[in-house]
Amino acid sequence: xxxxxxxxxxxxxxxxxxxxxxxxPISNHLYxxxxxxxxxxxxxxxxxxxxxxxxxxxxxFDDQFSVERPDGSNFTxxxxxxxxxxxxxxxxxxxxxxxxxxxxxxxGSRLTVL
Amino acid sequence: SQQGEEDPQALSIQExxxxxxxxxxxxxxxxxxxxxxxxxxxxxxxxxxxSNEREKHSGRLRVTLDTSKKSSSLLITASRAAxxxxxxxxxxxxxxxxKTIFGAGTRLFVKA
Lengths: 114, 112
Fold this sequence. Notes:
The complex is a heterodimer. Chain A is mostly beta strands. Chain A has no helices and eleven strands. In chain A, strands 2, 4, 5, 6, 9, 10 and 11 form a seven-stranded mixed beta sheet that branches. Chain B has no helices and eleven strands. In chain B, strands 2, 4, 5, 9, 10 and 11 form a six-stranded mixed beta sheet that branches. A five-stranded antiparallel beta sheet of chain B has the order 1-3-8-7-6, with no helix packed on it. In chain B, strand 7 (61-66) and strand 8 (71-76) form a beta hairpin. The mean pLDDT of chain B is 90. Classes of the chains: A mainly beta, B mainly beta. Chain A binds chain B through residues 4, 31, 33, 35, 41-45, 48, 50, 55-56, 58, 89, 91, 93, 95, 99-108, and chain B through 3, 30-31, 33, 35, 37, 40-45, 48, 88, 90, 92, 97-105.
């Protein structure tokens, strides 16, 4: 069964460092998302991406965040200068054109900022 | 905020009992979805109900939607220990864009 894959599964970084989280969405999907979940808290929307541009973004998605689809398969989230409060699970999701309401999630990348 | 809010925050039941979780939201929606998350894992889509639907079934799951009250419920019948997880409702904006917002979730614990 096709699935969304995310790498790395866990990354530890120093405050102020740049981090890139990678996602490979399901191949025929056209809509892509990043969410984050701070331990024990709710799943927060960061950004959605369609047709090679940002569709929607939240207040959390400030200038230190960026997304890119550098080729036909990868979808990346970059955090330019990490802060302690960026420590969270980051989930990538994608949806098919025929069922845009059904998000398929990856297993997440755990980011720990020290 | 458009976010759905679930209640209860936590629910503990015996295996075989039914579990009911509720969700309320604030703005008009295209559809409402329910997801499940096992601890530390990704979310798994369970069921989607459109704004013009009132009830939907999928196996042991039953979802209702009341757009006049801006609320939905998820019923899991004959619960099993394996149903232990967090359950989230999520809503899509009806004003365009692709933005699915999740509620805070209900943590369900099913005791064997």
